[in-house]
Write a structure and sequence with these properties.
Blueprint: H1 7-14, E1 17-20, E2 23-26, E3 40-42, E4 46-49, E5 55-57, H2 64-68
Antiparallel strand pairs: 1-2, 3-4, 4-5
The structure holds zinc ion.
Length: about 80
């Protein structure tokens, strides 16, 4: 039970960053309220700050918005 693998924790930390072309790239957005250093956790369709609880919804690009344009109301 005490023989916990540290790699599990390291894996969690490294998921905040990604090395791309030798540069460190942030994978998670920074909290708008808390500022730099406070990363928001990925919760699928949204990001949540574990510090202040601020929730930011991901911009979802779906085609359903296009279909709504077809609903044109005639003023004549
Ligand atoms: Zn925050």
């Amino acid at each position: 039970m005490l023989n916990r693998d540290k790699s599990e924790k390291q894996k969690h930390i490294s998921s905040y960053y990604k090395i791309e072309n030798g540069k460190l790239k942030r994978l998670l957005p920074i909290c708008d309220r808390c500022g730099p250093g406070y990363f928001m956790a990925d919760h699928g369709n949204r990001y949540t700050c574990g510090h202040c609880g601020f929730t930011k919804y991901k911009a979802v690009k779906n085609s359903s918005e296009k279909n709504s344009k077809e609903r044109i109301y005639s003023s004549d």
